[in-house]
Amino acid sequence: MSNTMTAPAKVKRTPVALNGVNTPTLLATINAVGAQPELAKFQFRAKSRWVSGTHSQSTMYGFFGAGGEHEHILPYKADGDHPAVLCGGDAGPTPVEWVLHALASCLTAGIANIAAARGIKLNKVESVVHGDIDLRGILGLSKEVRNGYQKVAITFSIDGDATPEQLEQIVQQSKARSAVYDIITNGIPVEIAVQANGRA
Amino acid sequence: MSNTMTAPAKVKRTPVALNGVNTPTLLATINAVGAQPELAKFQFRAKSRWVSGTHSQSTMYGFFGAGGEHEHILPYKADGDHPAVLCGGDAGPTPVEWVLHALASCLTAGIANIAAARGIKLNKVESVVHGDIDLRGILGLSKEVRNGYQKVAITFSIDGDATPEQLEQIVQQSKARSAVYDIITNGIPVEIAVQANGRA
Question: From the CB of residue B163, how many other CB atoms can be counted at a distance below 10 Å?
């Protein structure tokens, strides 16, 4: 592709709403957080309850951020279960499929925001995510096999009013600023506490 | 607590269905995979499509494992979006909240399976997950701040017909064999490919 054309990303422009993104508000928000870094501290939360067998349900409702408490429009609920072939009830996606959804939704949101900030109209963004796992890890059949995915691969199909290079760069920038990509590629510290109410 | 009582986990017993877990089938499955390790190779998948703004929707339906292709009972769909305070449409949980759900659902499924295998009846398993994140990372405002969570903390409240120590050990064993706990604490390799369909 020719690089002689002026890249839209480098044109000085007044930000306008694009791709369903309120670009002026988004950029104003980033500036506000830049001026007052304590606004950047967020805490997201989920509550989960066991239903039966390997089936549980989480609720994601309240969270802290931008200096105060917030609530989603609705208390969003989601199920998790093991599939029938793994002796589960298949009442919802498996926990490891939820990781794939988290990754795709994070990268896709970033693509839309970044494209809007660069003044590039998107027509389509689709992705397919594959996660390869050897269950000898979680089944306790091998000490050499890890519990989690060996590898995850995500392929984006993106269509927009820009050159293929510019569209590819948007995906790369989304990766560079993705919270979920960072979490699942670099790992994060997780603390587990237990309040046990037994019979003794 | 006294450790002089016989721990149910150590009693030789015929496995029976418990906690909604078909324990005999679960143990037979583990034995079958142990005898034929290629059955342990699974691939989970999600397809995602951008809707508008930061809103996307994933579908989790087909997967490979135990030597063949499988489908969930339904093509499970899930939304992801950024909340209003981050200029999103709040059409679903945020991608980082989905990570919390994945973790809670994985550990909870493991708790139910392990308790059943140990002959321990559970009455209640609930958890609360908190993830702390400094958005200066994803907003590109600081190179010192990571994109993902600084820390995740999950607290289980578990009630069952066993000693508190036995219940605590079940949670610890679930952690030791959790796919999602491994993924988000140790990290996994993620490949991103792009098929860009632009105007040039």
Answer: 20
